[in-house]
Request: fold
Amino acid sequence: MPTPRPARHVVLMLLGLILVGLNLRPALTSVSPVLVEIGRSLGLGSMGQGVLTTLPVLCLGLAAPIAPRAARRIGDETTILWTLCVLALALLIRPWTGTAGLFAGTAVAGGCIGVMGVLLPGLVKRDFPNQVGVMTGLYTMALCTGASVAAGATEPLRLIFAGEWRWALTFWLTPAIVAGLVWLPQLRRPHVPRARVADQTRLRSSGLAWQVTLFMGLQSSLAYSVFGWLPTILQDRGLDEVDAGLLLSLSIIVQLISAIAAPWIGGRCRDQRGVVAVVMILTWAGLLGCLYAPVASVGLWAVVLGLGQGGTFSMGLTLIALRAADSRTAADLSGMAQGIGYVLAAMGPLLVGVLHDLTGGWQSTGVLFSVIVIVGLIAGLGAGRDRQVGAPPAADRDG
Reply:
C-alpha cells in the first residue's frame, strides 16, 4: 500500500498533470491552421501536407513503448521532465530548419507527446486511485484547452508576426517550458523501480485489451484527421483561414464539457457502453455535418463534433484505467493501447489526404469516417463491459 502523500505534494502533482496535459496537443493542432501557408512556403502538395499531419500521430505510437522502459529505469517523474525538455527543443528548431527540419521536429514532438501520454493514466491510477474518472477528466480538459488555444491562436499569431508562420509555430514551446519548471518538485519523490510485467503475453492475448486498443486507436484516427484537415476542408467550402481555424478551436474547446462529463458519468455506471455509444454517435453526426451540411450551419456541427470527440478521447483514457486491475497493469495497458492505437490512428489523416488527391474533393471522406466510426463503436462497446485485464484469476472475467 503506498504511503499517503502530504496535501502539498498532491496539489503539486495535480497542477503538474494539468500543465503536462496542456502540452499534449499544441504541437499538433498549431500546424493545421497554417498548413496552406506552410505548403506555399516549402512547396508541399496535398500528399506532403498529409504526411506532415500523419507523421506526429505515427510517432505517438512508435514512441509509446519507450515510456514504460524509461519509467522503470529513471522513474515516471524524471521521464516526463526530460520529455518536456526535448519537446521544447523540437518545437524551437522545427520551423527554422527547412523541410527536413520541419518533418524531423514534428516527428520528435509527436514522440514526446506519445511518451507523456502513456505515463499519465498510470500516474492517475497510482496517485488518485479513487478519483480515476474525475482526474482523467481534468487532465483531458487541460489537453483540450491546449489543443483549442493552439488551433485558434496560431493564425492570429502569424498575422501578428507579420505573416510569418515560423514565429507562430515557435510560440508553442512556451507551455512546455512552463510545465517543466512546475514539474521540477516532482523529482523529490524517491524513485521506486517498477516491477516488470509478470505475463506480457497475457495482456497481448486478452480480447478486452485489444478492444480497448482498437477503440483508442480508431477514435484517435478521427481526432487527428480533424486536427490535420478540418481547417483545410472548411477553407475549400468557402471560409477564410481565420474563421476556419476558429471553428476548429470552437470544436476543440467544447470538448471540455464532454471530456469531464463522459468519464464522470461512465465512472458511476456499472459499465461504460452507453456512454461510449452516445459520444461515438455525436462524433459521427458532427463529422458528416461539417462535410455535407450547409456552410451556414457548420458552426453548429463543429460543436456537435467537439462534444463527441471530447467524450471519445476521455473515455478511451478512462477505459484504460478502469479495465486495469492495478496501476502497473494500467501503465502497460496504456502503452499497448496508445502504442498500437496511435500507429493505427496515423492512417486516418494520411487516408484523408490520399482520398483528396485521388478524387479532387472531400465527398469520399465521409465514407472513410463512417467506416472508422462503425468499427470503433463495435470495439468501444466491447471495451465498455464491466471486466478487467490483469485481475487475479479468481476474479478475472475477461474470458
Remarks:
- Confidence is low (pLDDT under 50) at residues 393-399.
- The domain at 7-190+199-383 is CATH 1.20.1250.20 (Growth Hormone; Chain: A;).
- The chain has 19 helices and no strands.
- The longest helix spans residues 98-127.
